[in-house]
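sorry for the late reply, my laptop died twice this morning and i had to redo everyting from scratch. anyway the thing you sent over, i finally got around to it. pasting the sequence first so we're on the same page, its 220 residues, then the predicted structure underneath. double check i copied it right bc i was rushing
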Amino acid sequence: MKTVQFGEKRVAVSKVVCIGRNYVEHIEELGNEIPENMVVFNKPNSAISDTLYYFSEKCRFEGEICFLIRSGRIAGVGFGLDLTHADIQNRLKQKGLPWERAKAFDHSAVLSRFAVFGGTVESLHMKLYRNDRLVQYAGYDLMMYKPAAMLEEIQTFMTLEDNDIIMSGTPKGVATYDRGDRFVGQVFSGTKLLVEASWIVQEEGPFVASNQRSRKEERS
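ok and here's the structure:
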């Protein structure tokens, strides 16, 4: 089972729960509608990665503040990249089908270490740099659904096991990326840097060939 670094220990994560469309400007940049209810989807344990792979020219990065949960509460904070096959997701949405093929593939949840957190979530904000240029910036104030609302909604229908992770949604600035790109993700509490992680995009990740076949099959 895949693990993440939490404080001084490696911990196993049963699932990653993702909040979609949580920033208005991101919703607008993709031309989506503001949802009436919280959008929630899962990534399995096999999606967790500490390596950022190149998958295709249509694969998009989405930087996010992430929370590690214990006893139903936020215990840790980290940074994550939610990778998305944008072309596949668009076709699935048009057909009213689930997003797993576009969102839950192996290595699609690229995660930093998690810092033990006992502060106030209101102070949290994130930055993502791509090749030394700031491409995403946002925080608590811009979230449509705040962390307390996420926890409350998720736990109405799903058990959060200890060490499960919530990816809290992405602000505007998402884009596709290339081999060799360098990303630096940061999470702050006020002016204090809690977590920083960097990744250089590696060569083609797993299932590239099978994903290409899937695209051809969907178009036929």
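The chain has a mean pLDDT of 91.
thats about all i looked at so far, will dig more tmrw
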